[in-house]
Amino acid sequence: MVKERIERVKGTRDLLPEDMAKRRWVFERIREVFEVYGFKEILTPTFEYTKLFQLRSGEEVVKQLYAFKDKGGRDISLRPDLTSSVARLFVNKFQNAPKPVKWYYITNMFRYEEPQSGRLREFWQAGVELIGSANIEADAEVIALMIESYLATGLREFTVNIGDRVLLDEFAKMLGVEDDIGLMRLIDKKDKMSREDFIASLKDFGLSDDAVEKVLFLIELKGKPDEILPGAYELFKSDKAKEELKKIEELFELLKAYGVEKYALIDFGIARGFDYYTSIVFEAIAPNDLGIGSIGGGGRYDNLIGVFGGKPTPATGFAIGIERLIPILESKGLLPSFRLSPDVFVVYIGKELEVKAKAIEITQALRKAGIKAEYDLQGRKLRKALEYADKLEIPVVVILGKRDLAEGKATIRDMATGEQKSVAIEKIVEEVKEMLG
RNA sequence: GCCGGGGUGGUGUAGCCUGGUUAGCACAGGGGACUGUGGAUCCCCUAGCCCGGGUUCAAAUCCCGGCCCCGGCCCCA
To answer: A318-334 pLDDT, tens per residue?
Structure first.
């Protein structure tokens, strides 16, 4: 016989019962916060026309699509994020809905990248989109929500670092740099290299000594607003930049009102990709030794709806990377432990149908009472059945044999103490409930 | 797409450099010793060299290609 082993597809993961229990717990914590903030859950299709994702361009983006032709010859891609789909949905059906539109999603995404630490080809994100408000309150709302989402999972050591694309643009203009994207790309990499290498790469990029000084000054603008903003007001002279700085100042005032300002920092070196963000951008960082950088991020994208053919509509949002968050929570011992085994194991002795049937009836009665119960489908001998229950740490075993049955009773065993009692069959549910507390 | 390190029963591993008995060990799984009482012991069973090609009398072992894993680069919406 030829056995061909089928492997998992590269960059994908099998999620086992323990994994699912953890994920479900984390999803629920996050979902609760999303809901109390008034966001409503949506889900768009797993795949869309490739065109949808190409529209907001970026050659890299297209290269990392999981793209294919379907049988009808359509060019299709698995969604690399939900923002594009949400924008499409909004343009298709919700342009005249009352504003703001507040949506959230918890689902999987696909990107064709080389897998590495904290990066798979299929991954899950929990995110929100807030569409229809250009006010800084909308930015504050989603940033506060992001912070509270992490707090809900028990995480405490993290910061949400806030940057601004307008300021980076103004900065590039100030330096007379035409390739502003190239400059942002370099600035984004600042933490990955030594100061000397960073300076060298800036010079290679063509910056004058004076401009290099300014860049170094800019990336030092990282911290609490009262420490940072005075320096920022000195660095930026244009009206547009000053106006933007005022917004950020207000943003932090609002975050104070939300009660989450201690988790928020200014970091003007944050660029977060280069395609659709237009103003405030932010990313969440949680110190860890797992090699995991950002655990989530987002920002304002005021042009995207227009790009997709809608009337220009401001929007902001964020996404939390579940595959990055869970290992961090786990390494900090913040995840509860989950019991997957049943609470009661019903064992019958012998092969008689009558006994077997009674065991099933007892199991069903327990289940109807909401108790996680199983009976021994393997038909093990009592000794093996107890070993099994012990191994799975099942706290209560109900033993049913002909002798018990003759008296209309069953034996209930407390696996921790080994204590047993003989109980009338109709009293079993009641008795077990009491034992399980 | 590129670079480095890996891939031996379900899991963890020895063996690989230096090719040569039946690929060893531990745990897990199933059964028995023990026909109504667990965490112990003993015995038995199940199950493996990632795939393909090459070199060789002989390949888990050496060579080439592919796939997958771990990590890094690019990129990270």
So the answer is: 999 999 999 999 989 99
d(CA A42, CA A55): 22
Q: For residue range A70-94, what is the model confidence (pLDDT) as tens digits?
A: 999 999 999 999 999 999 999 999 9
Nucleotides on chain B within 7 angstroms of protein Cβ: 1-3, 28-32, 34-39, 50-51, 67-77
A113 touches strand B (CB under 7 A): yes
Could you give all domains of chain A from N- to C-terminal order, each with its CATH number?
17-158+286-331 (3.30.930.10), 344-436 (3.40.50.800)
Measure the CA–CA gap between A119 and A324, rounded to whole angstroms.
Answer: 8
Residues 270-309 of A with CB under 7 A from strand B: 272-277, 291, 293-294, 297-298
The complex's ipTM works out to 0.89
Classify residue A83 as exposed, middle or buried by CB count within 10 Å of its CB (0-12, 13-18, 19+).
Answer: buried
Residue A301 and residue A83: Cα distance in Å, rounded? 10
